[in-house]
Amino acid sequence: MCRKSRFFHRILFKMSVWVFLLGFVSVLIVTYIVKAQMRQNIEKQITEEMNSIQSNCELYVRQILLINSASISETGFEQCAYEIEQQLKRAGYTDIALYTMDGRLLRSSKLQRFSGENRRKDFQFARKLRSAFTLRYKKQNYCDVYFSMPVQVMGQQVGILSYYQDYSALYKREWETIGGMLRVMVMAFGIIYLMIWFMIRRMIRPVQQLGRISEDISDHLKDGQFDSNMLEKLGDVKRKDEIGELSRNYMQMVSVIKEQFEKIQEDRDHILHLWNSRQEFYNNVTHELKTPLTTISGYAQLLEENGLGDEELFYNGIEHILQESTRLHRMVIQLLEMQDKGRYIRMGQVDAAVVLRSVTDAMQTKAKRYKNCLILDVKQGDYLVEGQEDRIRQVLINLIDNGIKYGRIGGNIRIRLAKEDGAVQITVENQGEGMDKEELSHIFEPFYRADKDRSREMGSSGLGLSISKKIMEEHGGTIQAESEPGGYTIFRVCFPAAGERRD
Asked: Would you say the pTM of this structure is higher than 0.85?
């Protein structure tokens, strides 16, 4: 039984918190951007005024020096300091101070304003022949500015002028603007937040109802019983959006699940009986014994027909019959003694080329009965793999046997052996009816037969490829199939070369 989610874990609470945080952060960001922009505008305005003041003051200084026939120099500026101060006051510049180029005070309208700590960086810049200002923000919307600029007359630096101005009114308007903007944004965000909250709540309500119904169904699903009246509540959802569609589809899904659950209960006993049967074991044993018996039978028929007339065939047939009989006996013993051969097999180095030549030679007899020709292509090289020879032989026999049975009558079956990237690769290609993608996706499943009628005629149980896949997994290798309907079929197996295997 699932625990009910707490209020803090519900979607409505989480969405509400996220929307609130998003709005709060958005207000802070907008406020910061607007404030920074307004500060930038204030500084831009102050800079423009400073340039204007500098031009006007230099013009007034030049006029005073010319009127008083003073020299255009620091000495003339010092001699006419009083007249310059009076002229600038009449022009509206009330709080000013005049200095020599070395920083000595000549005249000041308010001495305490331009002395001590008030001589800030702007004054130091002015001594270096650079105009500058110091902008100070204080409490209670108070803001003032100190200008300091070198005075240049006809290309000659004659002194330094400092000017003070109060910008508190401009600063106060800035805060009033920001405050008004904040009030509007908070009101707008509050309205939007309420609208979003009601919208989310309306969207979540059917989902909550769906969760309660799912909880009731899960409590009784083990018994195959649940209150069908709960589904009728979902049927009353008349919404035409995705949530309404989800509720209606859920009702249909639960109805189908109920029907299928009843059917599964009826089929359960039958399925358990099938899984506990020994049919799979019987089919595996049949397939394991069929191939060596076929080889023995084929050579026995040839020996019966030719007798001792062909001495080479006689000894070759006796050798293969003895070899297959020994392998058949060993497989029977293994089947009786072990339940899972993959856990107990002992690995050793096996020459894949030798095994492949032996299997190809042994399968030539069966190929001739189908008027096929086995063409073996083995490149020179080292084909040692780590595994068990009988298990590798079984894979090769299954693949070549499939190529013979399902290949075109009178066609060639090409068998290639190569070594690439530390892996020994064997391919078996035949021309025939081929398979489509759907069939290829199932051929390695137990008991699957692509052509069931033809497979029964050939005595196939549909286990060869699944057994081959299991053997390849035991050896750390792979098996793949590629086919084209009405064309070719290629089976490709790759064994890790000796020393390359990683379990």
From this structure: no
